[in-house]
Amino acid sequence: MTVRVLLLDDEELVRGGLRLILESDPDIEVVAEAGDGTGVLDLVSRHRPDVVLTDIQMPHVDGLQVTAKVTALPDAPVVVVLTTFDLDEYVHTALRSGAAGFLLKDIPPRELVHAVHVVARGEAMISPKVTKRLLTHFTRGSAEALDRVGTLTDRERDVALAVGRGLSNSRIAAELYLSESTVKVHLGHAMAKLGAGNRTQVAIAVHDAGLV
């Protein structure tokens, strides 16, 4: 299936470069683009993207606001934020708000294309270069986070911890000797108990609890 992408960045040259990279893959189509998030809800409604790829720092309506607006929609597309800064606290806020991915603008073209396909499949994609630094930098190890993780069954906890380590469903299935469908069931239950909207928020929850 073709992945439909909405691009948001205040630099036209950057948008053009991203479009060229993404559309070099025959299975990705950039359906619309804009210089900020002012009309993002209308663009999502008209073009029905699968992925919203947004710069974090834009005038008027920035990537944080875009993330909050889009993820609140019913049947929302996934949001991936782009930034130049690998430890920008705004990025962490965007992830907590439901962004499915966080990528640096210096990501190699092939990895960007791969990331779009990954998030379109429902998995998280955080730039490997900064995943550990980002989560460690903002980890609180709070009692509240520990309490929430404590509501998980043993298998749900195993799956949540594996997600926190950045493993895909197939890797988790192999490591825990489960089928992928069973992993998805446990992950779904874990997300509900943790109040997580996606895999990234599961990862943040277990990092906040100091377990990964």
UniProtKB/TrEMBL annotation:
GO terms for biological process: phosphorelay signal transduction system; regulation of DNA-templated transcription. The modification 4-aspartylphosphate is found at D55. InterPro entries: CheY-like_superfamily, NreC/VraR/RcsB-like_REC, Sig_transdc_resp-reg_C-effctor, Sig_transdc_resp-reg_receiver, Tscrpt_reg_LuxR_C, WalR-like. Pfam families: GerE (PF00196), Response_reg (PF00072). Residues 145-210 form the HTH luxR-type domain. GO terms for molecular function: DNA binding. This is DNA-binding NarL/FixJ family response regulator. It comes from Amycolatopsis endophytica.
